Amino acid sequence: MRETNKVFHLAIPCKELDETADFYEKLGCRMARRYNDRVTFDFFGDQVVCHLNPDSIDEMPQMYPRHFGVTFLDKEEYDQALKCAIREKLPFFKEQMIRFEGKQEEHMTFFLVDPANNLLEFKYYHDPVMAY
């Protein structure tokens, strides 16, 4: 199980800092730092750094194999994230769906797309054992 003295770090490209900050703050992520070439967020307890690099934006993103996100262990938190995305009119890449229905690994999921076409997945497993 994860220890609370560790924070996962992910660096991703962004094409413009203001729109990136707006998206992640609407999602509920606290901005930790901002420089002229990057912005760092508390992304649900982990660190996401969006580096200004407009030439490396994926113009045709696909869910697989590249995306990142959060697996919620509490359904209420998953529901809150979904409600927040809807309320803030954040762009969905894939609306909420059920994956692996009827199997032990069944889970609810939805995908958002940030302003640089980075795909974010949010999911909740009915069986918490399947989170890993």
UniProtKB/TrEMBL annotation:
Matching InterPro entries: Glyas_Bleomycin-R_OHBP_Dase (IPR029068), Glyas_Fos-R_dOase_dom (IPR004360)
Location of the Glyoxalase/fosfomycin resistance/dioxygenase domain: 7-122
Name of the protein: VOC family protein
Organism ancestry: Bacteria, Bacillati, Bacillota, Bacilli, Bacillales
